[in-house]
Amino acid sequence: MDSFARRFLDETVQVLQQLDASGIDDMARIIRETRDRDGRLFLCGSGGGAGHASHAACDFRKLVGIEAYSVTDNVSELTARINDDGWDTSYAEWLRGSRIRRGDCLFVFSVGGGDVERNISVNLVNAMKLAREVGACLVGIVGRDGGTLRRWADACVVVPTVDAANVTAQAEGLQAVFWHVLVTHPDLAMSTPKWEATVGA
């Protein structure tokens, strides 16, 4: 009998088969260039994307050797900015306080990529707008049609939609896969993860 789990995993295979993987290689090149010029990598997202940003910042620092920060890791600063100035500007103002500049890179995790007209993920759109204004690179992993992120990014991966009822689960689940591809990408990896380093030991 065909279970939900089996159908979902079969759908994931379809998503991967439809994916344009060249976006991952393009992102690896941009992040490598950022590291080579001593630029910094800032990562952000909301909800599941914020979780990805925190975990990915760790791995980019440890495995890729780039100075990396997650916008939402300092909960005191984040909530102070939200309380005092509002959610929509909180990420952009954190980036401004971190002196984001030309030579840096902003990495965004999003399901829909942001849409100011529909008042969706305006915090991410404002962060992306600031990155563009100062001349920082913009990359990301996004679902649906890619939204503002796809239009503005120097490189991004758009997770194809097979079933609109599962767009969030598929996009957020595969975001974790794709940024792990990046931190192990031969153009970026500088360290071997612990368990891989013990193979044969």
List the helices and strands and how they pair.
Blueprint: H1 4-18, H2 22-36, E1 41-45, H3 48-64, E2 68-70, H4 75-85, H5 90-97, E3 105-110, H6 122-134, E4 137-142, H7 147-152, E5 155-158, H8 167-184, H9 194-197
Parallel strand pairs: 1-2, 1-3, 3-4, 4-5
Helix pairs in contact: 2-8, 3-8, 4-5, 5-6
Summarize the amount of helix as a percent range. Answer: 40-55%
Q: And the CATH topology?
A: Rossmann fold
CATH fourth-tier homologous superfamily:
Glucose-6-phosphate isomerase like protein, domain 1
Biggest sheet record:
5 strands, parallel
β content, as a range?
5-15%
Overall pLDDT, averaged?
Answer: 95
- How much is the radius of gyration in Å? 17 Å
Question: How many helix segments?
Answer: 9
User: How many angstroms does the end-to-end distance come to?
Assistant: 43 Å
User: Regarding quaternary structure, how should these chains be classified?
Assistant: single chain
Primary descriptors:
alpha/beta; five-stranded parallel β-sheet; 9 helices; globular
Descriptive report:
Strand 3, helix 6 and strand 4 form a beta-alpha-beta unit. This protein has one domain: Rossmann fold. 53% of the residues lie in helices and 12% in strands. Helix 5 runs parallel beside helix 6. The chain is α/β, with parallel strands linked by helices and 201 residues long. The chain has a five-stranded parallel β-sheet with strand order 2-1-3-4-5, sandwiched between helices.
